[in-house]
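Re: the request from the purification team.
They wanted to know what the chain is likely to look like in 3D before they choose a buffer screen. I agreed to run a prediction and write the result into the notebook, where they can find it.
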Amino acid sequence: MEIGKDPQVIVLYDGYSKDEGTSMLANCTCTLIKGRTNIVIDTMTSWDGDRLTEALYKNGINCNQIEFVICTHGHSDHIGCNYLFPKAVHIVGFCISQQYTYFYHDFQSGKEYVINDKVKVVPTPGHTLQDVSVIVETDDGVVAITGDLFEKEEDLRDDSIWKSAGSDSQELQIINRKKILDIADYIVPGHGPMFKVHK
């Protein structure tokens, strides 16, 4: 699914999660923001390098053109292909770095990280205590790329879905889910397709 013109929000791969009894089969949703600033959000697992490179190529982008890599949190299914983007600034949860330089930013107190006038990174702890979401203003509305703050659209009706996926603070997750639902027209969740917010 694709939203907007500049910036464009392009979901490269829909995430999924399935309980297999003794294990979980899962991969995260991976999203490209294409425009004045090219951004990849949540880079899937370490086994997805060829898939991700190919998806970017189909959208007219190569890895060296990505300026920011944003991982909504540090779990392995969201950070696996960060290595593909050596020129980018990497934001993994509350940690911001480029090569060997780490930048100070006070996500902890709620401070947003502004990439440009259309894209910002906001702290949304809950699933982990350092979760972030990416808020994108497009000509089709506000898109929130949230990682596992929302697992999938179905967890709007069944909160056992996001709770069973793990939550470091259910109280914070409830607060931040409401905050995102209040501002977003579309949500890209951590393990499902983009969905429209019905208000």
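For the purification team: The two ends are 21 Å apart (CA to CA).
Please add any questions underneath this entry.
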